[in-house]
């Protein structure tokens, strides 16, 4: 029988079932402890990605109004989780779908109390050379995290704020 340098035969080498179960339990414990932080990180990434997509969408609509000197209508539908931008001559059409679990929670400025309906489609017009409307879109996920995307009426630049 071949022996190793410490005098152990080859039949005695290896790991036992108990040792393997202990290692598996440690791996499962580490995975269970790290899951909440990984999940929260993914939710944060999705929220940031959605706000970046909305900023890009608004930038495209604002740029179209300025470069082509056309009025652009921006439609925001919280009920459908969708945004649409289109020009009056139907030469420009762009849409953005907000993927689940992200939702459009509200659109500001708020309508008068008698006109407010949950999920009502909001319409904004962007005029070339005119002032940009102050639009604030509140987005959120199922965990209660929120983010606000707004257009600064002075600079006309969309920006995102976490809250």
Polypeptide structure, described:
The protein has about 160 residues and is α+β, with helices and mostly antiparallel strands. The protein has one domain: minor pseudopilin epsh fold, CATH 3.55.40.10. About 30% of the residues lie in helices and about 25% in strands. The protein has 1 helix and 8 strands. It has one helix at about 15-70; strands at about 70-75, 80-85, 95, 105-110, 120-125, 135-140, 145-150, 160. It has a 4-stranded antiparallel sheet with strand order 3-2-1-5, covered by helices on one side. It has a 4-stranded antiparallel sheet with strand order 4-6-7-8, covered by helices on one side. Strand 1 (about 70-75) and strand 2 (about 80-85) form a beta hairpin. The protein is elongated.
Name the overall outline. elongated
Q: CATH homologous superfamily, by name?
A: minor pseudopilin epsh domain
State the low-pLDDT regions, or none: none
Query: What is the C-level CATH assignment?
Result: Alpha Beta
Strand content: 25-35%
The SSE order reads HEEEEEEEE
Oligomeric status = single chain
Computed structural class: alpha+beta
Provide a count of the helices: 1
Question: Main β-sheet: number of strands, strand sense, barrel status?
Answer: 4 strands, antiparallel
Beginning-to-end CA distance, first to last residue: 71 Å
Largest beta sheet: strand ordering = 3-2-1-5
């Amino acid at each position: 029988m071949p022996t190793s340098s410490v005098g152990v035969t080859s039949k005695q080498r290896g790991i036992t079932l108990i040792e393997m179960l202990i290692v598996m339990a440690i791996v499962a414990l580490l995975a269970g402890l790290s899951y909440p932080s990984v999940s929260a990180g993914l939710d944060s990434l999705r929220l940031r990605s959605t706000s970046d997509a909305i900023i890009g969408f608004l930038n495209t609509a604002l740029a179209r109004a300025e470069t082509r000197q056309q009025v652009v209508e921006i439609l925001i539908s919280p009920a459908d989780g969708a945004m649409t931008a289109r020009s009056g001559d139907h030469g420009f059409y762009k849409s953005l779908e907000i993927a689940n679990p992200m939702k459009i929670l509200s659109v500001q400025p708020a309508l008068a109390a008698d006109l407010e309906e949950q999920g009502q489609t909001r319409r904004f017009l962007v005029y070339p050379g005119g002032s940009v409307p102050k639009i604030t879109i509140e987005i959120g996920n199922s965990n209660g995290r929120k983010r606000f995307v707004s257009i600064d009426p002075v600079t006309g630049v969309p920006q995102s704020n976490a809250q």
